[in-house]
Amino acid sequence: MAQGESVFMKEQFALGIDIGGTKIAYALLNKEGDVVDSTCDRFNPNKSSSETLSEIISQVEMLTTQNDALLAGIGVGCPGQVDVKSGMVKNAVNLGWRDLNLKEEIQSRLSAKTPVYIRKDADANLLGEFYYGAAKGFSDIVFICIGSGLGCSIISNGRLVAGATGTAGGIGHIHLEGNKEKCPCGLIGCAETLISGPGLVNRMKNYFYSQANDINPRLLDNLTPAHVVAAASTGDQTARLALSDFSEGLGHVIAICISLLNPEVIVIGGGLGQSAFAEIMPAVTTTMKRHALPHTYQNLKILPASQQSSAVGAASLVWKSNIDP
Ligand SMILES: [Zn+2]
Questions:
Q1: How far is CA 69 from CA 2, 11, 54, 90, in A?
Q2: What is the structure's pLDDT at 1?
Q3: How close is the Cα of 176 to the center of ligand 1, in Å?
Q4: Residue 41 pLDDT exceeds 60
Q5: Residue 39 and residue 28: Cα distance in Å, rounded?
């Protein structure tokens, strides 16, 4: 710091961290909600939570230093069952984390006394869209997050819906008729086993290997959801079949959401949800209309999420901590 300069002259920033099953995203946000810096790391499930947390702190320090930023706080979005008040992550299956007090673990590793706010990842993502993105100005919103899993967050009549035990929005484990895939949760046929990155890849592989004989079963080892979407858009029949099943499944899940909650807008987010939005929407809409009454979708808007970093919502927890819906 230059001579005569005080901390009061520095601009304050909020740092958002979105912890996912495959990546950890970071975004530094100013008070206006603009991303001034962002970065991304791979989430390594073979590392202990302690090792991952040390890496997270290193990234926090690096982003803070290189932007000469004074942190007003850190917001964290985390999958699984998250207790907002205590900061306890009870069970994040995708991360292999159980009964971890994320708030305390982060605070204890920081050199400065910085406030830390924790929320379920889908809720943090929805708040980012609600304050700065596609859901701005709406008060009845369903946010559907499609990435390594299928999650949902709800704002109804301007209030975030948590449910009795904080698990509202668990659409990933609604049963889809005819789906026989085993879900890591223990149930059979959960929506997430089809409507997710791994689900889409798995469906493509099933079609591919059932159509072709004498093919090396390792041929599609490196297939990604992005490959499937790209192949479908260029007319590959197998990819189109897989993406069609995916879209119909999503249309069915949306029909349930709109019948139950009557939202003004559905925002589709998550890496796969955003990137595949244009490709899947025609089939999603057709299936939704087949399974819901017209008054539930007549004025409904279905929009792609507009934030490019999933960590923006987590950062918004810092600026909006007093007025969370
Ligand atoms: Zn399940």
A1: 14, 7, 20, 32
A2: 47
A3: 11
A4: yes
A5: 9
In the chain, DSSP finds a helix count (H) and a strand count (E) of: 10, 13
CA 67 to each of CA 10, 18, 141, 309: distance values in angstroms, whole numbers, following the listed order: 11, 19, 34, 18
Instruction: Give the Å distance between the CA of 192 and the centre of ligand 1.
Output: 7
10 closest CA partner among 74, 59, 65: 65
Residue type, 285: T
* C-alpha dihedral, 238 to 233 to 270 to 297, nearest 10°: -100
pLDDT band at 177 (very low <50, low <70, confident <90, very high): very high
Mean pLDDT score, 200-224: 85
Please compute Rg for the chain using Cα positions. 20
Residue with tokens 């899993």: 149
Whether 82 and 89 have beta carbons less than 8 Å apart is answered as yes
The CA distance from 29 to 37, in Å, is 7
Tell me the per-residue pLDDT of 298-308, one tens digit each, with 9 for 90 and over.
999 999 999 88
Q: 143 CA to middle of ligand 1, Å?
A: 19
Tell me the pLDDT tens digit for each residue of 249-269: 999 999 999 999 999 999 999
The position carrying tokens 């991304």 is 40
Please give the distance, rounded to the nearest whole angstrom, from the Cα atom of residue 3 to the centre of ligand 1. 58
* Structure token pair of residue 1: 């710091």
